[in-house]
């Protein structure tokens, strides 16, 4: 049982009070109980909106969290980049209803001894879900602080027994133009693809996210499984993943292949390496408004102590 019945829900020590109050409101009006298909029923109630697809139980707090103020759920779920659901920031929320995140199977293959498939319900049941407050810093110089729910990607990867040839990990998003109307136009090569070096993928800061604000991921944020790599620009955090492959050579990454001079494979947040069309020295927090003061951007998005060693000896101007 992954989704709690209303009477089983205890008060939480980790989730802020206003979230619990919002959840209670949601439960009050939820005649059908939690689970799938709640979205449509709540359109227009002003309560659960697109996010209320279910509460994740037994979430542990994480020592990796930042203590920055959180971006609101409203902003996290209404200002998105997800080209499969449209190219405007407001499109993913509007088109979220087309994506069906259950049932959902992740295939893992490539350079590993135990390739296979795993369903998203099993992933939720097998791995302890943690709440980790991470900043997501987009290459377009905006950022959000999100209480992600997820678990270390490495915990899942180990299960498939990567071989010594596994030097990289490749990720693929679902391709299905019925669920992802943005795929009817070739604005990007579909499916969206991303990749990490093996040591980056195994780093404990790299998580596979299953939710945010204590609930299953809203579709527009990449349901049911999305990557979060907090020291890299947002485009590395690939959404709605259906396939993970271990590879010997550097995998195809959508934005990198499309505009290699603008989007590097590594895409580490770095104020010293500008995007060719704009500075990367500072960013705005979504929710502060476009006139608000910008914040100075930190190397590796503030995670230098944890990850700088991964790039020792590398020229970050070349491997950007
Ligand atoms: N499949 C897929 N994943 C994607 C994208 C996309 O268009 N398709 N956009 C990326 C970009 S550019 C960013 S900034 C983040 C945005 O995540 P958010 O909408 O949850 O804030 O998702 C990333 N993951
Ligand atoms: Mo982005």
UniProtKB/TrEMBL annotation:
| Major enzyme class | oxidoreductase
Q: Which BP terms from GO are recorded? A: protein repair
Q: Which EC number applies?
A: 1.8.5.-
User: What quaternary structure, including any partners, is listed in this protein's UniProt entry?
Assistant: Heterodimer of a catalytic subunit (MsrP) and a heme-binding subunit (MsrQ).
What is the required cofactor set for this protein? Answer: Mo-molybdopterin
Q: Where in the numbering of this chain does the Oxidoreductase molybdopterin-binding domain appear?
A: 100-255
Q: How is the cofactor bound?
A: Binds 1 Mo-molybdopterin (Mo-MPT) cofactor per subunit.
Gene that encodes the chain: msrP
| Reaction(s) catalysed by this chain's protein | L-methionyl-[protein] + a quinone + H2O = L-methionyl-(R)-S-oxide-[protein] + a quinol; L-methionyl-[protein] + a quinone + H2O = L-methionyl-(S)-S-oxide-[protein] + a quinol
Tell me which residues bind Mo-molybdopterin: 80, 83-84, 138, 173, 221, 226, 237-239
Record PTM text: Predicted to be exported by the Tat system. The position of the signal peptide cleavage has not been experimentally proven.
Q: What is the name listed in the Swiss-Prot or TrEMBL entry for this protein?
A: Protein-methionine-sulfoxide reductase catalytic subunit MsrP
Can you name one GO molecular function term for this protein? molybdopterin cofactor binding
Do you know which InterPro entries this protein is assigned to?
MsrP, OxRdtase_Mopterin-bd_dom, OxRdtase_Mopterin-bd_sf, TAT_signal
What is the superkingdom listed in this entry's lineage?
Answer: Bacteria
Give the family from UniProt. Belongs to the MsrP family.
Instruction: For this UniProt record, give its keywords in alphabetical order, as a comma-separated list.
Output: Metal-binding, Molybdenum, Oxidoreductase, Signal
- Its function? Part of the MsrPQ system that repairs oxidized periplasmic proteins containing methionine sulfoxide residues (Met-O), using respiratory chain electrons. Thus protects these proteins from oxidative-stress damage caused by reactive species of oxygen and chlorine generated by the host defense mechanisms. MsrPQ is essential for the maintenance of envelope integrity under bleach stress, rescuing a wide series of structurally unrelated periplasmic proteins from methionine oxidation.
